[in-house]
Amino acid sequence: MKIIKIFLTLILTGLITVSCEVEEGQNLNGPTTDTVSDDLSRGELQEAMGGALSDMRERLGTQVDAMSVAGREYWRIQSSDPRWTADLLTGVLDNNTFYTTNPYAARYATIKDINLLLTGLENTTADFSNQEIAATRGFANTIKAHELLMVLNHQYRNGIRIDVADPDNLGPFVPYEEALATIFQLLADAATDLSNGGGTFPFSIPSGFAIAATPSDFLEFNRALAARVEVYRGNYASANSLLLNSFMDLSGNLDKGVYFTFSLTGADMINPLFFALNSTVANARIAHPSFIDDALPGDERVNKAVLRDEPLTSDNLTGSYDVFVYQSNVDPVAIIRNEELLLLYAEANHISNPTAAIAAIDVIRDAAGLDPYAGGTAPADLVDEILYNRRYSLFAEGGHRWIDLRRFNRLGVLPIDRAGDAIFEQFPIPLTENQ
């Protein structure tokens, strides 16, 4: 049985775990897959969208950890599961274990949520206006595109399935470049809908989406995600245009962005990327020593790793610094934020307009306590500088270092910590996937 079908019965559980108000008249037992897809009501839209946004956070910790370990940002120590320091550092990967199957299934579960919602939107007899339908479709397809990109970042040259609307008749795997192009087009179509979406969404928005709470503001988030895709594709002119229409702000708060949020209330979940300082071998994230060693003098971003009271040793690995990007179990986790947008802007301009690229780099360097960039202006020099800043600005946020070195064919620069360790460029297709 295909993995997407396996999770069909689970996708609408936990539907009100995103901080949304329960509207009068809602079915508090939650909508079923049939009621959502057959004829979507206003109350069902609220719960179904809340469920999709909640499901986006499922297995987020597993995916970020696996990709971050692959990129030697940190070591994930867990005494009860040595695969974190065995498989993921030796590159001998299992296609039927948690670091492969769980993120894959979770992302496609969210995509299934969205597909059911979109089908229900097509079939609805509720009194949605054309603007409300357009706004909802634009929001939903933007979320769908994000989830597909998450799968693709995990699977890379394996390709991914794009067409998964019918679990009994799944579309084929499409190669990496085609998948990126399709994701970009999905975002472009969603942008058109958002442009025609009026002034409000017909559902409430979680607090992590506060800067994108209206269709016009959400369009800026959509354009930011599209710029990320275009930079991955090397379409720099397109990326530059998209960034200028996003929420990017060269003089704004670098943390401005769209976030996953967490809480301790009800059936909600806590931040899976938080561990307390000085955690034991039972569960710890230990910054790779190179993160400390390679930092420029005075770079304050190195403070995202905190010196432990005592070094931690596990499986012939010893580290002295805890990852401490998230300082509580309810801290939000960025989906995309202004600091990344400035670095995407620098990359988009590093060939055609190095002056603009350096201006963006200097905003990042100044915030990190560094002097203005004084290196070369050739593309190769600027790529080195951009990759350095992406490494320290986006540390432990989403496996960015692994993705970045892979797309610049630089995975070979990653350190090998022990004899027998190796670097890999993608996770295997899950065993349960029938191709």
Verbal overview:
- It is a single chain.
- The protein has 435 residues and is mainly α.
- It is built from 15 helices and eight strands.
- Helix 12 packs antiparallel against helix 13.
- It starts with a helix and ends in a 28-residue tail after the last helix.
List its traits.
435 residues; mainly alpha; two-stranded antiparallel sheet; 9% strand; globular; disordered N terminus
Neighbour order of strands in the largest sheet = 1-5
Radius of gyration: 21 Å
Structural class: mainly alpha
Helix percent band: 40-55%
Number of strands: 8
- Report the sheet with the most strands, covering strand number, pairing sense and barrel closure: 2 strands, antiparallel
Order of helices and strands: HHHHEHHHEEHHHEEHEEEHHHH
Q: What is the mean pLDDT?
A: 93
Helical segment tally? 15
Strand content: 5-15%
Low-confidence stretches: 1-29
Subunit arrangement of the protein: single chain
How do the helices and strands line up, and which of them pair or pack?
Layout: H1 3-6, H2 33-38, H3 42-55, H4 60-70, E1 74-77, H5 87-90, H6 98-123, H7 130-155, E2 160-161, E3 173-174, H8 176-195, H9 215-233, H10 236-244, E4 257-260, E5 284-287, H11 289-293, E6 305-314, E7 317-323, E8 333-337, H12 338-349, H13 354-367, H14 379-393, H15 400-407
Helix pairs in contact: 3-6, 4-6, 6-7, 7-8, 7-9, 8-9, 9-10, 9-12, 10-12, 12-13, 12-14, 13-14
Give a quick rundown of the structure:
The chain is mainly alpha-helical and 435 residues long. Helices cover 44% and strands 9% of the residues. Among the domains are: 236-270 and 336-409, no CATH class; 284-323, no CATH class.
